[in-house]
User: Fold this.
Amino acid sequence: MSETRDARTDDAPASTAKNAHARDEATDALVSPKGAHVVGRAVTINKPAAELYAYFRDFAKLATFMENVERVDVLDGARSHWVVKAPAGKTVEWDARVTEEREDELIAWTSEDGADVANSGRIEFRDVGARGTVVTATIAYDPPAGTIGKLVAKLLQREPAIQARRDLRRFKQLMETGEIATAARTRKQLDEEKA
Amino acid sequence: MRALTWHGKHDVRVETVDDPEILNPRDAIIKVTSTAICGSDLHLYDGYIPTMQSGDILGHEFMGEVVEAGAKSTLKKGQRVVVPFTIACGSCYHCGKHQYSACDNGLPADNQDIAQELYGQPMSGLFGYSHMTGGYAGGQAEYVRVPFSDVGPIVIPDGIEDDKVLFLSDILPTGWMAAENAQIEPGDIVAVWGAGPVGLFAVQSAFLMGADRVICIDHFPHRLELAKKFGAETINFEESQTYEALMEMTGGIGPDACIDSVGLEAHGFFVDNVIDQIKASTFLGTDRIHSVRQAILACRKGGRVSMPAVYGGFVDKFPLGAFMEKGLTLKTGQTHVQHYMPALLNAIVEGKIDSDFLISHRLPLEQAAQGYKMFHDNQNEVTKVVLKPGLAVAAE
Assistant:
């Protein structure tokens, strides 16, 4: 018998449920369309929500801290084109559309038909006073079929939760310190890290 | 440039590597004029610290001259600076509370995973101290890339020689924070385990904070002599029974505050220590904790235990019962160096703290490997080795 969300007796976020089914159900409820794989992560950033929202909403800038994103081209106010690194020097692409947005609070998006990787997600910004803003990202995606699908699945399934966590850490570093921390000693080492 | 690189247990070499470059706007490049070998570098030398990679440049106690500053660095070319061993951003929540060693952003995002797994949350970065602490190249080199150079390095006024201020980088603030964590009250009797650099600075700090008596415990006669010079009473644990001696010297009460500045390579041929050593070498436990165990037993009821010593993993036979029943307070942590530097620089300038007494050997960087071996093999005489990249190699 699977535990349902309603049966839970505590205040912990649904994304932390021990029951994997309950966990997926809860995070799935946040995004549309649903994906096969869902990732949810929160990080506190010591900056006002408005500043974080503004940076994130300018999708062209996302590649600065999202490691796998090669570039995002803004097509119009709601639509953007994503080029994402895949294994073996390949890339996967899709058009995305903003499905919901509330200034300084929330951005939700979904990929449009024909995407190499169907995905949807939402990022929320919640003011927590002196500590800054809690940023919560929820991302759902469906690895495609076929050869490229296998490559993409390999990339995304490597550790999607870890990838999301690292991207959020880089976003935090960039917003709080104005740069992304690196232990590289030389430009060459830095380029190798980013490759 | 030339740099001291790690290649395995007891294998460090001075090699030629690529010069560092400015990579981020807040970076600065420092030309190193003095850099010390730290007792905790011996943990790396002895192979106790995981996530080391062949070729890593060691060294986290260093100072030098600014030769290049990034667009957002506040440093200027030609300034002399001492660099804190903790790499902290100055802008996150923890830095805002001056808890610099708990900085959220000092570690590269990918390096944060290991610390998050092991400790629950990632800590600040450290120079030259394994990949778990960021994998940053250290200061036992001719040049170093210093991130967040607008927050960390402290500018040294002209006329104060390197040797006076070098230890602001780590061991002086660490000894001071150890005493501060011991919450010393006027009239206190303070016991300090380990008459190494941190212990000796803790002795000086404890007196400055109002301690009535300080008792220092070690087994190296020369180091105990140094402790005596600063007014401490001493216990040589090879000649005397430490717990019994402490109880007698405090009239059966126990010290009000106990400072463990020994850490994970505690010496002493005691049964529990030998067991710890076997466990450490068979990876059943990583840390040897004889000194903190003894500190908890000796400490007076309701007293305070401060632990500046480096521990990295897990321990067995921690006397949790004694700790709880006696109502002790334990405070610890990597040093918030940036927080303590300005006041301690003043204390040095005003002559309240003696810092360069510690240096027993000065060597050219080229002879760094010899320095490690000397420090490792003869800790009685060799209290501190300072490497000077500018020093000429003496003719054989």
The longest strand of chain A covers residues 91-102. Chain A has two domains: 1-30, 39-194.
